[in-house]
């Protein structure tokens, strides 16, 4: 039979009703979260006793239902990104009348939703993506989960879904990872991809904030994005379609931002390109590379190397990898934390508008160093060609497919993610 365990009852005694010892990491996690006030207090009117605030997500209410049919993890070499999922998932219900319900870790399986659920009709859906890694000593960490929770809350607010205690969700994800940690391949370059998702589930038609919602998390073991080494991609400069517009939803991680891009990517593939480069406005400002943030490196006549990425102007998704690349580059430029292998000379980092004209002019003058995208799945994706207005612009790449700035930053970032380089961005799970 499946085993149901309430963490609240577990912590009241040394053993659960099933006779199992309470894992020390569970007790320690609960103690830490109490000290840090992870849970929002539910307040009551002192006279009437009625609730004056609704419950936030509470780790202490977690129930664990372990599967009675565990599956053996597949051979790592057979993994296809996003096609294999672990034995368990996390689910947390919400209702406008009662607030956040008890979190539950349960066997991975289908969701039961009414056909009139608002997620199906009005796209009340958002998601995140992050990874957990196993280092050479077996230690498991997550990479910057606080950034994902902050962005998830901003996105929820944008589509009138309830916000939540991000620290509590991080603790719950840690527990999910601990249960399914054997799914993380013990092989260099492999990790566990974590997909938090939040949907409106109210069974009613009508455009309004939903009265019911569900936050759930699933996990998928994944291999290296480039198993045979870096392979630069060719982009098609898309001028016929727009990914986002000022004042729209481009800065939020919503499913509604992704489905419209699939047809555009298919059209780019028909033209011989791997992905599309989203351009905006009459001056063809560079925005994003497919579903990744865009970076360009220029070498100016005065010897200064400039790393440029479009600003967060409301159309650009604030990517966690984007922020990490900028932070590492700025620390190097300031001398705070030097990165081995970076080009000699002054490095300047700018978040500013950049157009295709500027990139083409720099290429003609021999000042275009490299062009690349950043994202959770690939980390860094180098670009060697951009199709634009009927002509191909060729981008310099090194023998290994990367450029002189992206290569050392990628090594530094992956070193942090995999535990080879100690850094506060790596959050211990187990």
Automatic annotation (TrEMBL):
<dbReference type="InterPro" id="IPR001544">
    <property type="entry name" value="Aminotrans_IV"/>
</dbReference>
<dbReference type="Pfam" id="PF01063">
    <property type="entry name" value="Aminotran_4"/>
</dbReference>
<dbReference type="InterPro" id="IPR043132">
    <property type="entry name" value="BCAT-like_C"/>
</dbReference>
<dbReference type="InterPro" id="IPR018300">
    <property type="entry name" value="Aminotrans_IV_CS"/>
</dbReference>
<dbReference type="InterPro" id="IPR033939">
    <property type="entry name" value="BCAT_family"/>
</dbReference>
<dbReference type="GO" id="GO:0005739">
    <property type="term" value="C:mitochondrion"/>
</dbReference>
<dbReference type="InterPro" id="IPR043131">
    <property type="entry name" value="BCAT-like_N"/>
</dbReference>
<keyword id="KW-0032">Aminotransferase</keyword>
<comment type="similarity">
    <text>Belongs to the class-IV pyridoxal-phosphate-dependent aminotransferase family.</text>
</comment>
<keyword id="KW-0028">Amino-acid biosynthesis</keyword>
<dbReference type="GO" id="GO:0009098">
    <property type="term" value="P:L-leucine biosynthetic process"/>
</dbReference>
<dbReference type="GO" id="GO:0009099">
    <property type="term" value="P:L-valine biosynthetic process"/>
</dbReference>
<keyword id="KW-0808">Transferase</keyword>
<protein>
    <recommendedName>
        <fullName>Branched-chain-amino-acid aminotransferase</fullName>
        <ecNumber>2.6.1.42</ecNumber>
    </recommendedName>
</protein>
<dbReference type="GO" id="GO:0004084">
    <property type="term" value="F:branched-chain-amino-acid transaminase activity"/>
</dbReference>
<dbReference type="InterPro" id="IPR005786">
    <property type="entry name" value="B_amino_transII"/>
</dbReference>
<feature type="modified residue" description="N6-(pyridoxal phosphate)lysine">
    <location>
        <position position="253"/>
    </location>
</feature>
<keyword id="KW-0663">Pyridoxal phosphate</keyword>
<dbReference type="InterPro" id="IPR036038">
    <property type="entry name" value="Aminotransferase-like"/>
</dbReference>
<keyword id="KW-0100">Branched-chain amino acid biosynthesis</keyword>
